[in-house]
Write the structure tokens for this entry.
Amino acid sequence: MFVWNKTRREYDYEEEKWVVVPNPRKDWVTFYDSKLAIVPIELWKAARRKLAASRRNSPRTGRKMSRNEKSATTLFSGTLICGYCGRELVLIRSADKYKVMGCIHGPHGIHGCKLTSSKSIRIIETCLLAFLQETVLGEKEIERLVKKANAYLAAEAAKPRRDTAPLKASIRDKEASIKKLFQRIEGCEGEALNQAYEKRIAELQKEVNELRLQLRGAEVQNTPQPCPLDLETVKGLLGDLRGLLSQEAPAAAEAIRALTGPIRIRQENVPGRKRGARWIAMFSPDLVRFLAQYTGRRDYPDSVPLEYLSTRIWTKPETVEVPVDHVPKYEQIAPKVRPLAGQGNSVDTISRLMGVPWETVRDAISFAQTGKRPAPRNRKREKKSPRRSKQPPKKALIAAEVARLRDEEQRPFLEIAKLLDASPSTVTRAYDLAHPEILKAAAKKGRTPARGRYCRSAHEVRKQIRQHLEVGQRPAEIARVLGCQPWTVYYERKLMRSEDGQSVAEARRRPSKSRR
């Protein structure tokens, strides 16, 4: 769209300078070039209507939408508002891995703003999304939404397919008529007749555009319906909610803004911390408005009542406060670690049970008992270590093999460590990873985990003992031939009898040939 004569320049004799004065709209000269249009005019109008609707529904109606509200760069861009000066929080550092948000008035105290601290995008998204996932997107809510979505898909699949052949034929006929009229205009010299042809061409083109819109809607309706949603798959996707939303940040930010409304941020000092402050996010989540805006149209089963409720004051949304701050790992696990330590479990047992380093367990126990935070470590800049591969840890790779060697072949952990080229502690951690139930049972009683039984004799020696016993040789002769202790042969014979169906107690009561 090209517009001329929107403004004019006049000389202001009082100010003694030229000023720009807007002209009335009736004096504008406009020209629309359809060849330069990037998108169809219908799509452009629909986008303008959507923007106008979002401005009307915005709690800050009357204010121009910011750039972040139109196209957000992060999940909470355009949503976080300073609780002191009312300004939108923006990125004050926009590096790829270290994006930080804050109020530009806070560090300098402009307009009395007291929000002097800033927060990492990672911390903001982790805290707020965790709250939304626990309260709004809980398991019961997910089950209800999946059930409703599957019902809607079933209803859509039951609709009959539309026949698009008549629409396509009508479009072809009208386009042929337009082509014939153009040919007549080229050979016609009468001005009045040309105007009549042009008017008829415009009418036909308008009808063609309407038919194309109907054809597009029919083709969309005839699109094969997807298979029903799987509850476990949806739960798995929402398990990584942050990664799922980050795939399309502008659309996700708009949806989050409709759910939470403006989120006001204030700060408070943390006892025992010299630097930084904790943010407190205050907002009123409105699930009904969110569902009315994003889950249904007029043909959706619950869209009409949801839309009606969203425009009426039938309930007052509760205001919630969510702390936004980095909580160290030792502080997160302190409530779980304290009873385990009180039962007499060692730091190493608790670290294996929780899946964290023993230093973190030590700090958690200290924090739970005394409330004091550990002194910050001296972080000196060192040379960058080589990039680690994304391969899982060694204990996870060898867990199955360690469990087999320990449970089936009854080998000691030292022998298994040499066989798998790993340290003894890695081998025991791998065994605990393969048998978490043993570790949990031992932690409840405050005892050392019972990690199976082992036999001191080598696996090959045990094989040879079994071969000699199957032949029928006496245990004393077998011990003399293989160079092992006689009790080793007796113990292996007892195991063989128990494996054959005889109980261990009967095998012990049965006298051996050497004692007869």
